[in-house]
């Protein structure tokens, strides 16, 4: 073994011995890149959330509230999933369901206040009325002065049988998305007449999760299209739920949120940029496979960080207490198949296994606690990436100039040494503060260890490294305002932004930086507040930030990110129109119309690339279809006259957000895509 690896292995062994973790040796250090100039979303004061349920007899206890406070929970949702659509708050009943003693609304509010969390209330859509919801707002915010800001209209109402499956109560004779949208408008009007300061949320489907993409008979579009088109002007946020069923799905989040934003922009009407996105139910959703143990905790931290970095304003774990399920051994510890953060001491039906004492934290509890210590309100996420699939990285820049880096090692048997490189940030010398949670631990440990550029990650661990800057220059300019874009073509875009506030020296220029993974590519600079970018690629999603530089070389924080997608040529010798004809949530029938705008051709080849690795071709017709890697080639013989249109079709499948291909070439020429 080379001496450098021997020293690294010795450091690993010492670290693991101190933590009582079995040693395992990594072959080489993992490269982690943190780019402080590639800014993402700002951490909200509502980011870390959890759900309460009226059937949970421990909902109102002080111990529960204190546990949630210690975890850093900032939002508590009530009255609990599908129970929301059978619950009547005024008499605290839920016909057809069990209501535990001591779980009424006032008790919930007392606990939320003890926790220090903002309440989020789900009004009963399924079996109540707009008037009942308005009365609840009046009681909460006028009579009691609770100041409940966030109000959802119903819970998973697409599960009312309209698409086949029925788990959500819905007494409306019409169970279509149009009927739901009409009622959202009525609920919003009635509730805001009582308190115009509240925020109203409407239920949407989540990308690549049933019944997303499906159009039921008689509907004018998918659930999301109909609801946003009809009720978009009356809502303030949309509601997503996500149970991915696996631990490696964080890579889906960026597209999931981007597709949701595109639907909002396309269908919700003028001013739709005000509409926020809330993930009001999230859990790894793999009963008995590790949601109570460390794999579930690692997936939770990765998903929370990725969702918040993408601009979701709250992520609410399902659930605070839930109950025992399938009991298994996972990575050396008992997993109870319980979706809760805390034990409710329940037992299996045959009494063969029981959970630990009430309110004993499960591993995901520590993931939320780590998140609340890593990403604090007002911090700004910045890009971070690693060179090892088993290691995930996230980072935030704090207002005082510090950087916090969250490192997640999902390997069960390898301790990875990591080397951390920084762009746009100079770390101070000396050992940083390191927070660690390892497999089976019952707390997060804090130490001063390693360096800003070198750490060792135990197997199945969460590690937060808090790094001070080498220097903290004063008088820097403020960050530029939120950039916007106009005149987006296939190869150009004009980016504009509100001017930054000067520091002690005048601002001399602004720099526009593109995020390319965790690497920043400077697209250009200007002395003004607008810049025309050229040489872009057609059909490509770009995320950019703007920074200000003063006369002394001082650099501001990055602006908030701007994401836009280029189009295809306005004129071309060919035009392609792709439509999603029929969708079943994991696949669809695609129809492609090809129009020849140029000289007559005899034989032709159409090429395109699937945007994501989880998409594939299952078959096609009216031509010869082949797929190599992510590239699809369609070959046909026969004439295609000037002005003529031909149609081809295919069946595509997907296991993640279905980003449709947008760039097609016909005999090597990029077509205009309609």
UniProtKB/TrEMBL annotation:
SUPFAM superfamilies in UniProt: (Trans)glycosidases (SSF51445), Carbohydrate-binding domain (SSF49384), Fibronectin type III (SSF49265)
Molecular function in Gene Ontology: hydrolase activity, hydrolyzing O-glycosyl compounds; polysaccharide binding
Annotated CDD domains: FN3
Pfam family, any one: fn3
Domain CBM2 residue range list: 567-674
Claim: Signal is one of the keywords in the record: yes
One of the GO biological process terms: polysaccharide catabolic process
Signal peptide: 1-26
Keywords: Carbohydrate metabolism, Glycosidase, Hydrolase, Polysaccharide degradation, Signal
Gene3D superfamilies linked: 2.60.40.290, Glycosidases, Golgi alpha-mannosidase II, Immunoglobulins
Ranges of residues in domain Fibronectin type-III: 479-569
SMART domains linked: CBD_II, FN3
Protein name: Alpha-L-arabinofuranosidase
